[in-house]
Amino acid sequence: MQELKNFLKDLVYTPTVSGYEKMSADNIIDMCSTFSGGIFTESYITNTGSVVMVKKCGKENAKKLCFDAHIDTIGFAVSEVCGDGYLRLLPLGGIDSNILPSSEVLILGKKRIRGIFSSIPPHLSRSDKLPEAGELLVDTGLTDENLREIVSVGTPAMLYPHFKELLENRISSVSLDDKICVAAAVLAVKNIGESLENTDIYCYFSSGEERGGNGSHHIYEEISPDALIVLDVNFAKEKGSMEGEYGLLSEGAMMSFSSQTSIKFTRFILECAKDEKIQLVNEMTWTGTNADVSARVGLGIPTAVVSIPIKYMHSSVETADMNDVISCANILTKTAASYDKNPVCLPVYFKGGANDELK
Amino acid sequence: MMSLNRKMDLELLEKLCLAHGVSGYEDEVADLIIDTIKDNCDTVMKDGVGNVIAFKKGKKTPKEPIMLCAHMDEVGFSVKHINDDGTLDFLEVGMSPTVLPSKRVLVGKNRIPGVISSRPVHLSPDKTHAVKQADLVIDIGAKDKAQAESLGVFGDYAAFDSDFTLLGDGLVKAKALDDRIGCAVMCMLSGCELENDVYFAFTVGEELGGTGATAATNRIKPGICLVLEGTTASDLYGYEEKDKVCKVRHGAVCPFMDGGTFYDNGLYKTILDLADKNSIKVQTKTKVAGGTDGARIQRCGKGTKVVALSLPCRYIHTSSSVASVEDMESILCLSKLFIGSI
Question: What's the number of domains chain B is made of?
Fold first, then answer.
């Protein structure tokens, strides 16, 4: 458990702001390789900054089962270097301005420097109006001259990383969306080890999910998986949540029903992992994940969504339970074992064959 | 047009309309289609995302491969949460909440009968206020949460429970005419001798903006695509002519443009000429609205020339769509002629 926590901590401390993933893609590959005990047989970085890590089974023309977890996180880019050591930041991905005043950021310039989102002292402010993120200035404490040496327009920034262990194996950190699923995927591949005979496992740590799924559009060209499990975080019940809307923390990973995903593949996974604690959610139309794209690329990828419940999504205190990470990895491990023997959702020919008119 | 002697197979259309195929759950419709076309086509397959794709050899092979496309999915519901009193919270795809209260539905493969709730008018605080979907539930009569859970309804789909019937003079009322009419026409064409080789794509997820269309198009790589669809007819009594979009009994609808697609000018003209020469009724849409799988198909590969023939349907995306048999026959005849004209 501690090893897994440390791995996750390393991941969240590695900056991969949406659109700037390449900055740390090599580090991500190193961390995943090390944690998995060198199980991956191949890894590379795509043109748009996604990380692909493969565990081949050794058989030619093996089936390809793919786990997608997005490597990018919400963050910021510098839009203006103002006077007096202040910066203006543009949010990348959905960020609630409520969390910003007095929050700390890490600015990823030539050097890594700290910054603090300004706030107006309560003594001076009578307004309860929420400022827009672009109105808030970030104080770097540097002189203009030094600041311009380090930072320019377009420099990325992230919420200042931290990783706190709470009670009962619960943790709180930045960027659990979606690094926690990267950790689950690598743990699953580690568990799977050398056990598969007919299936290659592809981990697609995709870029750009927070900005509309940049990486997910190339997944067919890059990998052309036979089946895909999209791993993402999902909402856990918080104060004020409606009953039945969301999952619960610590009650296991979640699985989504949605018209965007394959109901057949979803039920297959549920059957494979029937001994695991799984929470079901119904999202009907859109899942809000890379799965909304994957049926629509190439020859279509049968897709299911497995998610880890977290609280306070897109904040600097995203909170999750490590047991749910293990539950998620177990689901993937069991699914891979069954898929290896009995792959589902492959094209079926009722008449004629793949060598005829329809390949 | 009757010179072509193509009568609409209403029995087939009835079977297709009564089958359930809410977006994401198209298997029942797919199986029915596979059964119907298997003996007529040379290749029949189902791809990984659930599209049914078939190839039928014609008298000759056209320079540009021809694809016909109709979607299998229909608007409907799925069960989101089971309440303590055994009622079901639900989500919908493709509908306005105003058409939901007090309709009958069937839940899941086992077709458990249910009804969508309706607040007694006596208790409505504001009688002019349109209902919100979140305030409605599906009631299957379960006595409590446990009983509903034991039926495995969570996450399952629900479709309208609505019969297929002739209505008035030459009209039909059914659920899912959008787009079982396209499926029915393609099934019928698969049984005809065709002038050219044709690929048929029965797609999934059109009501969600075309989940399956890209995969089908990338597999077939067509040069030309004819989309067969159901479309909105707003030809209600008292409506101004300009707001009607298209009209029931006025023939197949051949749009020049809609919310998602620029239809190919040349093919659009081909359809109008064919209709004119063969005295088949055709009309266009008077509003640039709505969308079809054409939007996706057009953007695949090197781009596809797309044209559409749509059935004008009143009350589309409800339990009771209404359309004319004569309009269906216009689509059937024009589709067959179109295949021959390439």
Answer: 2
The DSSP-derived string for A290-334 is THHHHTTSTT---EEEEEEEEBSTTSTTEEEEHHHHHHHHHHHHH
Q: At residue B48, what are phi and psi to the nearest 5 degrees?
A: -65, -25
Eight-state DSSP code of residue B34 = H
Q: Does B66 lie at the interface with A, CB-CB under 8 angstroms?
A: no
Q: In the annotation, is B241 catalytic?
A: no
Residue B320 domain boundaries? 2-74+175-341
Chains A, B: CB contacts within 8 A come to: 133
- The CA distance from B207 to the nearest CA of chain A, in Å, is 10
**CB spacing of B296 vs A296 below 8 angstroms:** yes
Asked if B43 and A261 come within 8 Å (Cβ–Cβ), the reply is no
Which strand (E) or helix (H) includes residue A66?
strand A63-70
- The pLDDT tens digits of the residues spanning B275-319 come to 999 999 999 998 888 899 999 999 998 999 999 999 999 999 999
Query: Hey, which residues 197-256 in chain B have their CB within 8 Å of chain A?
Result: 199, 205, 208, 210-212, 214-216, 218-220
| Confidence band, pLDDT 50/70/90 cuts, at residue B3 | very low
Q: What is the CATH number of the domain that holds A109?
A: 2.40.30.40
Catalytic residue among B206, B207, B326, B329: B206
Give the residue among A189, A300, A221 at the shortest CA–CA distance from A46.
A221
Separation of alpha carbons B230 and A187, rounded Å: 48
- pLDDT grade for A122, boundaries at 50, 70 and 90: low
Q: Do B89 and A244 touch (CB under 8 A)?
A: yes
Mean pLDDT of A49-55: 97
Q: Is B31 found in the same domain as B104?
A: no
* pTM, to two decimals: 0.90
% of chain A at pLDDT higher than 70: 96
Are B211 and A295 inside 8 Å of each other by CB?
Answer: yes
Query: Is residue A187 domain-shared with residue A86, that is, in the same domain?
Result: no
Residues whose CB falls within 8 Å of the CB of residue A61, separated by 6 or more in sequence, listed in order:
none
